[in-house]
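[Automated response] Your request has been received and processed.

Submitted sequence:
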Amino acid sequence: MSTLKRKCCTMTEVEFYYSDIWSKVKLLLKDNKSIPAPVYTTYFDDTSLVFLNGEKAIIRVTYDLQKMVLLQKIDAIKEAMLELGYVISDCDIQLANSQQEKQSAGLDHSFRDKMLADYTFDNFIVGPSNKEAHSAALACAFNPGRFYTPLFIYGNSGLGKTHLLNAIGNYIKDNDPSKKVYYTASVDFVTAVADSTKDGSIEAFKTALKRVDVLLVDDIQFIAGKEKSHEIFFTVFNELVNNKKQIILTSDRDPAEIKGLEERLISRFSSGLTVGLDSPEFETSLAILKYRLENQSYDLTMIDDDVLSYIATNFSKDVRKLEGALNRLLFYSIQFGNNQRIDFRVALGAFKNSGSSAEKNEISVNKIKRIVSDYYGLTKQQLTSNSRTKNIANARHIAMYLSRKMLDLSFLKIGEEFGKRDHSTVISACEKVETLSKKDIQYKNLLNELEKQIIQT
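Generated structure:
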Protein backbone atom coordinates (compact mmCIF):
# COMPACT_ATOMS: atom_id res chain seq x y z
CA MET A 1 0.00 0.00 0.00
CA SER A 2 1.29 3.42 -0.93
CA THR A 3 2.23 5.81 1.87
CA LEU A 4 1.22 8.91 -0.05
CA LYS A 5 -0.73 11.30 2.15
CA ARG A 6 -3.68 13.39 1.07
CA LYS A 7 -4.88 16.74 2.45
CA CYS A 8 -8.46 17.90 2.24
CA CYS A 9 -9.05 20.63 -0.34
CA THR A 10 -12.56 22.04 -0.28
CA MET A 11 -14.12 24.75 -2.40
CA THR A 12 -13.78 27.20 0.49
CA GLU A 13 -10.04 26.57 0.67
CA VAL A 14 -9.65 27.09 -3.09
CA GLU A 15 -11.56 30.38 -2.95
CA PHE A 16 -9.45 31.48 0.02
CA TYR A 17 -6.32 30.55 -1.95
CA TYR A 18 -7.38 32.80 -4.85
CA SER A 19 -8.49 35.60 -2.51
CA ASP A 20 -5.17 35.59 -0.67
CA ILE A 21 -3.19 35.82 -3.91
CA TRP A 22 -5.36 38.59 -5.33
CA SER A 23 -5.21 40.70 -2.17
CA LYS A 24 -1.40 40.69 -2.45
CA VAL A 25 -1.58 41.53 -6.17
CA LYS A 26 -3.89 44.46 -5.46
CA LEU A 27 -1.47 45.87 -2.88
CA LEU A 28 1.23 45.92 -5.57
CA LEU A 29 -1.16 47.48 -8.08
CA LYS A 30 -2.17 50.12 -5.53
CA ASP A 31 1.49 51.15 -5.25
CA ASN A 32 1.99 51.11 -9.02
CA LYS A 33 2.68 54.66 -10.21
CA SER A 34 1.00 54.00 -13.56
CA ILE A 35 -2.33 53.52 -11.75
CA PRO A 36 -3.53 56.75 -10.06
CA ALA A 37 -5.15 56.32 -6.63
CA PRO A 38 -8.67 57.35 -7.80
CA VAL A 39 -8.43 54.89 -10.71
CA TYR A 40 -7.36 52.09 -8.40
CA THR A 41 -10.15 52.81 -5.88
CA THR A 42 -12.84 53.07 -8.57
CA TYR A 43 -11.87 50.22 -10.89
CA PHE A 44 -9.46 47.81 -9.15
CA ASP A 45 -10.56 47.60 -5.54
CA ASP A 46 -13.83 45.78 -6.23
CA THR A 47 -12.42 42.90 -8.29
CA SER A 48 -11.62 39.28 -7.57
CA LEU A 49 -9.47 36.44 -8.86
CA VAL A 50 -11.65 33.42 -9.77
CA PHE A 51 -9.14 31.17 -11.50
CA LEU A 52 -5.38 30.70 -11.75
CA ASN A 53 -3.14 28.02 -13.17
CA GLY A 54 0.36 27.93 -14.61
CA GLU A 55 -0.72 29.75 -17.76
CA LYS A 56 -3.81 31.82 -17.14
CA ALA A 57 -5.61 34.05 -14.64
CA ILE A 58 -9.29 35.03 -14.73
CA ILE A 59 -10.35 38.23 -12.96
CA ARG A 60 -14.00 39.03 -12.26
CA VAL A 61 -15.37 42.57 -12.55
CA THR A 62 -18.92 43.90 -12.17
CA TYR A 63 -19.43 46.31 -15.10
CA ASP A 64 -18.19 47.04 -18.62
CA LEU A 65 -16.18 50.21 -17.92
CA GLN A 66 -14.32 48.39 -15.14
CA LYS A 67 -13.44 45.65 -17.62
CA MET A 68 -12.19 48.17 -20.20
CA VAL A 69 -9.89 49.85 -17.63
CA LEU A 70 -8.38 46.58 -16.40
CA LEU A 71 -7.80 45.41 -19.98
CA GLN A 72 -5.58 48.47 -20.45
CA LYS A 73 -3.53 47.44 -17.40
CA ILE A 74 -3.00 43.75 -18.24
CA ASP A 75 0.78 44.21 -18.32
CA ALA A 76 0.76 45.77 -14.85
CA ILE A 77 -1.33 42.86 -13.55
CA LYS A 78 1.06 40.31 -15.09
CA GLU A 79 4.05 42.12 -13.58
CA ALA A 80 2.44 42.09 -10.12
CA MET A 81 1.67 38.39 -10.48
CA LEU A 82 5.24 37.73 -11.58
CA GLU A 83 6.60 39.62 -8.57
CA LEU A 84 4.70 37.16 -6.38
CA GLY A 85 6.07 34.20 -8.34
CA TYR A 86 3.08 33.52 -10.61
CA VAL A 87 4.02 33.43 -14.29
CA ILE A 88 0.97 33.77 -16.55
CA SER A 89 0.82 34.19 -20.32
CA ASP A 90 -2.90 34.96 -20.49
CA CYS A 91 -5.17 37.12 -18.33
CA ASP A 92 -8.95 37.26 -18.90
CA ILE A 93 -11.17 40.00 -17.50
CA GLN A 94 -14.71 38.64 -17.22
CA LEU A 95 -17.97 40.31 -16.30
CA ALA A 96 -19.81 38.70 -13.39
CA ASN A 97 -22.68 36.52 -14.65
CA SER A 98 -21.40 36.59 -18.22
CA GLN A 99 -22.07 33.47 -20.31
CA GLN A 100 -18.36 32.71 -20.49
CA GLU A 101 -17.99 33.05 -16.73
CA LYS A 102 -21.02 30.85 -16.13
CA GLN A 103 -19.50 28.14 -18.28
CA SER A 104 -16.08 28.41 -16.66
CA ALA A 105 -17.55 28.55 -13.18
CA GLY A 106 -19.64 25.51 -13.93
CA LEU A 107 -16.57 23.55 -14.97
CA ASP A 108 -14.55 24.82 -12.01
CA HIS A 109 -17.34 23.66 -9.70
CA SER A 110 -17.21 20.23 -11.34
CA PHE A 111 -13.46 20.05 -10.76
CA ARG A 112 -13.98 20.51 -7.06
CA ASP A 113 -17.13 18.67 -6.09
CA LYS A 114 -17.20 15.62 -8.39
CA MET A 115 -13.86 14.21 -7.28
CA LEU A 116 -14.33 11.40 -4.78
CA ALA A 117 -12.16 12.45 -1.85
CA ASP A 118 -12.12 9.01 -0.22
CA TYR A 119 -10.36 7.41 -3.18
CA THR A 120 -6.60 7.88 -2.75
CA PHE A 121 -3.40 5.97 -3.42
CA ASP A 122 -3.07 5.63 0.31
CA ASN A 123 -6.06 3.28 0.60
CA PHE A 124 -5.64 1.40 -2.67
CA ILE A 125 -4.52 -2.18 -1.97
CA VAL A 126 -1.87 -3.25 -4.48
CA GLY A 127 -1.43 -6.84 -5.68
CA PRO A 128 -0.41 -8.73 -8.84
CA SER A 129 -3.86 -8.18 -10.36
CA ASN A 130 -3.53 -4.38 -10.33
CA LYS A 131 0.17 -3.64 -9.82
CA GLU A 132 0.81 -2.50 -13.40
CA ALA A 133 -2.21 -0.17 -13.45
CA HIS A 134 -1.31 1.25 -10.02
CA SER A 135 2.27 1.93 -11.10
CA ALA A 136 1.17 3.70 -14.30
CA ALA A 137 -1.44 5.76 -12.43
CA LEU A 138 1.11 6.83 -9.83
CA ALA A 139 3.57 7.87 -12.54
CA CYS A 140 0.90 10.09 -14.16
CA ALA A 141 -0.01 11.63 -10.81
CA PHE A 142 3.62 12.29 -9.90
CA ASN A 143 4.47 14.01 -13.18
CA PRO A 144 1.32 14.79 -15.24
CA GLY A 145 1.81 14.76 -19.01
CA ARG A 146 5.39 13.49 -18.80
CA PHE A 147 5.14 9.72 -19.01
CA TYR A 148 1.91 8.31 -20.45
CA THR A 149 -0.78 10.37 -22.11
CA PRO A 150 -3.30 9.10 -22.62
CA LEU A 151 -3.28 6.43 -19.94
CA PHE A 152 -6.10 3.97 -20.65
CA ILE A 153 -7.17 1.71 -17.75
CA TYR A 154 -9.65 -1.07 -18.49
CA GLY A 155 -11.25 -3.92 -16.57
CA ASN A 156 -14.57 -5.28 -15.37
CA SER A 157 -16.76 -3.38 -12.94
CA GLY A 158 -15.64 -3.30 -9.33
CA LEU A 159 -11.91 -3.81 -9.84
CA GLY A 160 -10.69 -0.31 -8.90
CA LYS A 161 -10.71 1.80 -12.09
CA THR A 162 -12.69 4.64 -10.53
CA HIS A 163 -10.55 4.45 -7.40
CA LEU A 164 -7.32 4.90 -9.39
CA LEU A 165 -8.81 7.68 -11.52
CA ASN A 166 -9.82 9.70 -8.46
CA ALA A 167 -6.54 8.89 -6.68
CA ILE A 168 -4.67 10.49 -9.57
CA GLY A 169 -6.80 13.64 -9.44
CA ASN A 170 -6.68 13.93 -5.66
CA TYR A 171 -2.90 13.50 -5.57
CA ILE A 172 -2.33 16.15 -8.25
CA LYS A 173 -4.67 18.65 -6.56
CA ASP A 174 -2.95 18.14 -3.22
CA ASN A 175 0.59 18.45 -4.51
CA ASP A 176 0.08 21.15 -7.16
CA PRO A 177 -3.05 23.28 -6.53
CA SER A 178 -2.25 25.34 -9.63
CA LYS A 179 -3.08 22.36 -11.86
CA LYS A 180 -6.60 22.46 -13.28
CA VAL A 181 -8.04 18.95 -12.90
CA TYR A 182 -11.32 17.98 -14.56
CA TYR A 183 -13.01 14.72 -13.56
CA THR A 184 -16.18 13.52 -15.27
CA ALA A 185 -18.08 10.36 -16.02
CA SER A 186 -18.59 10.00 -19.77
CA VAL A 187 -22.38 10.03 -19.25
CA ASP A 188 -22.06 13.47 -17.64
CA PHE A 189 -19.80 14.58 -20.47
CA VAL A 190 -22.43 13.60 -23.05
CA THR A 191 -25.07 15.50 -21.06
CA ALA A 192 -22.84 18.58 -20.80
CA VAL A 193 -22.27 18.53 -24.56
CA ALA A 194 -26.02 18.33 -25.20
CA ASP A 195 -26.84 21.10 -22.70
CA SER A 196 -24.13 23.48 -23.93
CA THR A 197 -25.21 22.86 -27.54
CA LYS A 198 -28.78 23.81 -26.65
CA ASP A 199 -27.88 27.01 -24.80
CA GLY A 200 -25.28 28.13 -27.35
CA SER A 201 -22.25 27.80 -25.07
CA ILE A 202 -20.59 24.85 -26.79
CA GLU A 203 -17.58 26.89 -27.93
CA ALA A 204 -17.02 28.19 -24.38
CA PHE A 205 -17.36 24.60 -23.12
CA LYS A 206 -14.69 23.39 -25.56
CA THR A 207 -12.41 26.31 -24.73
CA ALA A 208 -12.69 25.62 -21.01
CA LEU A 209 -11.88 21.93 -21.51
CA LYS A 210 -8.87 22.72 -23.68
CA ARG A 211 -7.42 24.75 -20.80
CA VAL A 212 -7.37 21.92 -18.28
CA ASP A 213 -4.09 20.36 -17.24
CA VAL A 214 -5.48 16.95 -16.33
CA LEU A 215 -8.55 15.35 -17.92
CA LEU A 216 -10.03 12.31 -16.13
CA VAL A 217 -12.91 10.50 -17.84
CA ASP A 218 -14.56 7.47 -16.25
CA ASP A 219 -16.32 4.77 -18.34
CA ILE A 220 -15.41 6.32 -21.68
CA GLN A 221 -17.28 3.49 -23.46
CA PHE A 222 -20.56 5.34 -22.89
CA ILE A 223 -19.71 8.02 -25.45
CA ALA A 224 -19.87 5.28 -28.12
CA GLY A 225 -22.49 6.13 -30.74
CA LYS A 226 -22.76 9.75 -29.61
CA GLU A 227 -21.65 11.61 -32.73
CA LYS A 228 -21.55 15.13 -31.28
CA SER A 229 -19.69 13.96 -28.17
CA HIS A 230 -17.19 12.16 -30.41
CA GLU A 231 -16.54 15.37 -32.31
CA ILE A 232 -16.07 17.51 -29.20
CA PHE A 233 -13.94 14.93 -27.39
CA PHE A 234 -11.72 14.37 -30.44
CA THR A 235 -11.02 18.11 -30.70
CA VAL A 236 -10.31 18.50 -26.98
CA PHE A 237 -8.22 15.32 -26.88
CA ASN A 238 -5.92 16.47 -29.70
CA GLU A 239 -5.48 19.92 -28.15
CA LEU A 240 -4.51 18.51 -24.77
CA VAL A 241 -2.13 15.90 -26.16
CA ASN A 242 -0.43 18.48 -28.38
CA ASN A 243 0.07 20.69 -25.31
CA LYS A 244 1.48 17.74 -23.31
CA LYS A 245 -1.42 17.70 -20.86
CA GLN A 246 -2.39 14.56 -18.98
CA ILE A 247 -5.37 12.44 -20.04
CA ILE A 248 -6.53 9.33 -18.16
CA LEU A 249 -9.48 7.26 -19.37
CA THR A 250 -11.18 4.18 -17.96
CA SER A 251 -13.38 1.61 -19.65
CA ASP A 252 -14.74 -1.89 -19.14
CA ARG A 253 -12.76 -3.10 -22.14
CA ASP A 254 -9.76 -2.46 -24.39
CA PRO A 255 -10.21 0.55 -26.74
CA ALA A 256 -10.31 -1.66 -29.84
CA GLU A 257 -13.26 -3.60 -28.40
CA ILE A 258 -15.57 -0.65 -27.68
CA LYS A 259 -18.40 -0.98 -30.18
CA GLY A 260 -19.69 2.24 -31.73
CA LEU A 261 -16.47 4.16 -31.16
CA GLU A 262 -14.97 6.01 -34.14
CA GLU A 263 -11.72 4.58 -35.50
CA ARG A 264 -9.94 7.89 -35.05
CA LEU A 265 -10.80 7.84 -31.32
CA ILE A 266 -9.72 4.21 -30.96
CA SER A 267 -6.41 5.17 -32.56
CA ARG A 268 -5.95 8.13 -30.17
CA PHE A 269 -6.89 6.08 -27.11
CA SER A 270 -4.39 3.38 -28.07
CA SER A 271 -1.55 5.82 -28.71
CA GLY A 272 -0.44 6.07 -25.08
CA LEU A 273 -0.30 3.27 -22.51
CA THR A 274 -3.10 0.74 -22.05
CA VAL A 275 -3.18 -1.29 -18.83
CA GLY A 276 -5.70 -3.78 -17.47
CA LEU A 277 -7.10 -4.67 -14.06
CA ASP A 278 -7.99 -8.24 -13.14
CA SER A 279 -9.96 -9.85 -10.31
CA PRO A 280 -8.00 -9.76 -7.05
CA GLU A 281 -6.13 -12.96 -6.22
CA PHE A 282 -6.44 -14.58 -2.79
CA GLU A 283 -3.63 -12.65 -1.07
CA THR A 284 -4.88 -9.29 -2.35
CA SER A 285 -8.47 -10.13 -1.38
CA LEU A 286 -7.31 -11.05 2.11
CA ALA A 287 -5.34 -7.79 2.41
CA ILE A 288 -8.39 -5.79 1.31
CA LEU A 289 -10.58 -7.47 3.94
CA LYS A 290 -8.07 -6.81 6.72
CA TYR A 291 -7.64 -3.20 5.65
CA ARG A 292 -11.41 -2.60 5.63
CA LEU A 293 -11.72 -4.11 9.12
CA GLU A 294 -8.83 -2.04 10.48
CA ASN A 295 -10.31 1.07 8.87
CA GLN A 296 -13.52 0.44 10.84
CA SER A 297 -11.43 -0.01 14.03
CA TYR A 298 -12.50 -3.66 14.19
CA ASP A 299 -10.44 -5.97 16.40
CA LEU A 300 -8.98 -8.57 14.02
CA THR A 301 -8.56 -11.02 16.90
CA MET A 302 -12.39 -11.20 17.05
CA ILE A 303 -12.65 -12.94 13.68
CA ASP A 304 -11.16 -16.33 12.79
CA ASP A 305 -8.56 -16.42 10.02
CA ASP A 306 -10.42 -19.23 8.24
CA VAL A 307 -13.49 -16.98 7.99
CA LEU A 308 -11.52 -14.29 6.17
CA SER A 309 -9.94 -16.97 3.98
CA TYR A 310 -13.41 -18.29 3.15
CA ILE A 311 -14.59 -14.85 2.03
CA ALA A 312 -11.37 -14.16 0.07
CA THR A 313 -11.77 -17.50 -1.73
CA ASN A 314 -15.48 -17.32 -2.56
CA PHE A 315 -16.19 -13.62 -3.15
CA SER A 316 -13.13 -12.32 -4.98
CA LYS A 317 -14.60 -11.73 -8.42
CA ASP A 318 -14.44 -8.01 -7.71
CA VAL A 319 -13.73 -5.69 -4.80
CA ARG A 320 -17.34 -4.56 -4.42
CA LYS A 321 -18.55 -8.15 -4.02
CA LEU A 322 -15.75 -8.79 -1.55
CA GLU A 323 -16.66 -5.78 0.58
CA GLY A 324 -20.37 -6.62 0.32
CA ALA A 325 -19.71 -10.10 1.71
CA LEU A 326 -17.75 -8.63 4.60
CA ASN A 327 -20.54 -6.16 5.38
CA ARG A 328 -23.09 -8.99 5.34
CA LEU A 329 -20.97 -11.01 7.75
CA LEU A 330 -20.55 -8.13 10.20
CA PHE A 331 -24.27 -7.32 10.05
CA TYR A 332 -25.19 -10.96 10.66
CA SER A 333 -22.78 -11.24 13.59
CA ILE A 334 -24.42 -8.23 15.26
CA GLN A 335 -27.99 -9.41 14.63
CA PHE A 336 -27.64 -13.14 15.28
CA GLY A 337 -24.22 -13.74 16.77
CA ASN A 338 -24.55 -11.40 19.73
CA ASN A 339 -21.64 -9.43 18.25
CA GLN A 340 -19.20 -11.93 19.74
CA ARG A 341 -16.24 -13.67 18.11
CA ILE A 342 -16.94 -14.51 14.47
CA ASP A 343 -16.10 -18.15 13.79
CA PHE A 344 -16.84 -20.37 10.82
CA ARG A 345 -20.24 -21.33 12.23
CA VAL A 346 -21.32 -17.68 12.16
CA ALA A 347 -19.95 -17.30 8.62
CA LEU A 348 -21.94 -20.29 7.35
CA GLY A 349 -25.08 -18.77 8.84
CA ALA A 350 -24.38 -15.41 7.20
CA PHE A 351 -23.91 -16.92 3.74
CA LYS A 352 -26.40 -19.77 3.98
CA ASN A 353 -28.71 -18.50 1.25
CA SER A 354 -26.29 -16.38 -0.73
CA GLY A 355 -22.61 -15.83 -1.31
CA SER A 356 -20.84 -19.12 -1.87
CA SER A 357 -23.92 -20.91 -3.21
CA ALA A 358 -24.51 -18.04 -5.60
CA GLU A 359 -20.88 -18.23 -6.61
CA LYS A 360 -21.26 -21.90 -7.54
CA ASN A 361 -24.09 -21.05 -9.92
CA GLU A 362 -22.24 -18.09 -11.35
CA ILE A 363 -20.97 -18.26 -14.90
CA SER A 364 -17.18 -18.10 -15.18
CA VAL A 365 -14.49 -18.98 -17.72
CA ASN A 366 -13.59 -22.05 -15.67
CA LYS A 367 -17.21 -23.21 -15.72
CA ILE A 368 -17.39 -22.73 -19.50
CA LYS A 369 -14.14 -24.68 -19.91
CA ARG A 370 -15.49 -27.51 -17.75
CA ILE A 371 -18.84 -27.80 -19.55
CA VAL A 372 -17.29 -27.67 -23.04
CA SER A 373 -14.41 -30.05 -22.23
CA ASP A 374 -16.85 -32.55 -20.65
CA TYR A 375 -19.07 -32.41 -23.73
CA TYR A 376 -16.13 -33.18 -26.04
CA GLY A 377 -14.57 -35.73 -23.69
CA LEU A 378 -11.50 -33.57 -23.09
CA THR A 379 -9.71 -32.11 -20.10
CA LYS A 380 -9.62 -28.38 -19.35
CA GLN A 381 -5.84 -28.57 -19.80
CA GLN A 382 -6.31 -29.74 -23.39
CA LEU A 383 -8.44 -26.67 -24.14
CA THR A 384 -5.58 -24.39 -23.14
CA SER A 385 -2.82 -26.54 -24.67
CA ASN A 386 -0.98 -25.92 -27.93
CA SER A 387 -2.66 -28.92 -29.58
CA ARG A 388 -4.21 -28.15 -32.97
CA THR A 389 -6.06 -31.42 -33.52
CA LYS A 390 -9.48 -30.77 -35.01
CA ASN A 391 -11.53 -31.98 -32.03
CA ILE A 392 -9.55 -29.92 -29.50
CA ALA A 393 -9.40 -26.85 -31.74
CA ASN A 394 -13.19 -26.93 -32.32
CA ALA A 395 -13.87 -27.23 -28.60
CA ARG A 396 -11.41 -24.44 -27.84
CA HIS A 397 -13.04 -22.13 -30.40
CA ILE A 398 -16.49 -22.78 -28.92
CA ALA A 399 -15.27 -22.16 -25.38
CA MET A 400 -13.67 -18.89 -26.48
CA TYR A 401 -16.85 -17.85 -28.28
CA LEU A 402 -19.05 -18.63 -25.28
CA SER A 403 -16.66 -16.76 -22.98
CA ARG A 404 -17.04 -13.72 -25.19
CA LYS A 405 -20.82 -14.03 -25.59
CA MET A 406 -21.81 -14.96 -22.05
CA LEU A 407 -19.25 -13.00 -20.05
CA ASP A 408 -18.47 -10.18 -22.49
CA LEU A 409 -14.78 -10.54 -21.69
CA SER A 410 -12.16 -8.72 -23.74
CA PHE A 411 -10.38 -10.68 -26.46
CA LEU A 412 -7.14 -10.04 -24.60
CA LYS A 413 -8.53 -11.54 -21.38
CA ILE A 414 -9.93 -14.59 -23.20
CA GLY A 415 -6.56 -15.13 -24.87
CA GLU A 416 -4.88 -15.14 -21.45
CA GLU A 417 -7.41 -17.68 -20.16
CA PHE A 418 -6.80 -20.05 -23.09
CA GLY A 419 -3.05 -20.55 -23.02
CA LYS A 420 -1.98 -16.91 -23.33
CA ARG A 421 -3.04 -16.72 -26.97
CA ASP A 422 -2.92 -13.50 -28.97
CA HIS A 423 -6.17 -11.51 -29.07
CA SER A 424 -6.25 -11.79 -32.89
CA THR A 425 -6.42 -15.58 -32.49
CA VAL A 426 -9.45 -15.19 -30.23
CA ILE A 427 -11.13 -12.82 -32.68
CA SER A 428 -10.61 -15.31 -35.50
CA ALA A 429 -12.01 -18.19 -33.37
CA CYS A 430 -15.12 -16.22 -32.42
CA GLU A 431 -15.74 -15.23 -36.05
CA LYS A 432 -15.46 -18.87 -37.17
CA VAL A 433 -18.00 -20.04 -34.59
CA GLU A 434 -20.35 -17.16 -35.44
CA THR A 435 -20.18 -17.98 -39.16
CA LEU A 436 -20.75 -21.71 -38.63
CA SER A 437 -23.73 -21.08 -36.35
CA LYS A 438 -25.43 -19.13 -39.14
CA LYS A 439 -24.80 -21.82 -41.77
CA ASP A 440 -25.32 -25.05 -39.80
CA ILE A 441 -28.49 -25.50 -37.75
CA GLN A 442 -27.07 -28.52 -35.88
CA TYR A 443 -24.01 -26.51 -34.90
CA LYS A 444 -26.29 -23.70 -33.67
CA ASN A 445 -28.30 -26.20 -31.63
CA LEU A 446 -25.06 -27.48 -30.11
CA LEU A 447 -24.15 -23.96 -28.99
CA ASN A 448 -27.62 -23.46 -27.53
CA GLU A 449 -27.36 -26.74 -25.61
CA LEU A 450 -23.96 -25.81 -24.17
CA GLU A 451 -25.24 -22.38 -23.13
CA LYS A 452 -28.21 -24.04 -21.41
CA GLN A 453 -25.90 -26.38 -19.48
CA ILE A 454 -23.64 -23.52 -18.43
CA ILE A 455 -26.56 -21.47 -17.12
CA GLN A 456 -28.36 -24.30 -15.35
CA THR A 457 -25.50 -26.37 -13.97
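Summary generated for your ticket: The chain has four domains: 11-96, 113-276, 282-359, 365-456. The radius of gyration is 28 Å.
If you did not submit this request, please reply to this message.
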